[in-house]
Amino acid sequence: MFYHVAKGWRDKDRAQNKAKKHALVMQGKAHGVIVYHGGKPVGWCQFGPSEEFPRIENMKDYKPTHHGNLWRITCFFTDRDYRRKGVARAALEGALHYMKDHGAEVVEAYPVDTRKRHSSNLLWNGTPDLFASIGFTKECKLGSERWIFKKTL
Length: 153
Prior knowledge:
The chain is of the alpha+beta class. Helix content is 25%, strand content 28%. The two termini are 26 Å apart.
């Protein structure tokens, strides 16, 4: 829910945030892809049109890279036992395919600068290497530890 609201998500308890996320899903205002291995979900990627993530507009140093049909990739999850096995890349490729099919012109992502020390469980925005490997370009710094990466579809 963090990116889905401009502010105040911490003012809600877990049940309230879960209910709000469920409502967004049912309204078609929350997007994601799930990666399966042998029928077991092992990872996912959250993405959507820019208007679904108003918090990003309020981030310090944020400057939009595009003013047309802009979509965003905000987070990933990979099961601990499946890390470093291509799950995030598979999720990203699936998300890009969906976005292209639904009219996205440009996609932004906000990976963590991995030159600083981070445990793998803090890399939920993805890494610069992941996005660069699939054709995203580094646009500008976002805060002290993130970058804006962009891909034109």
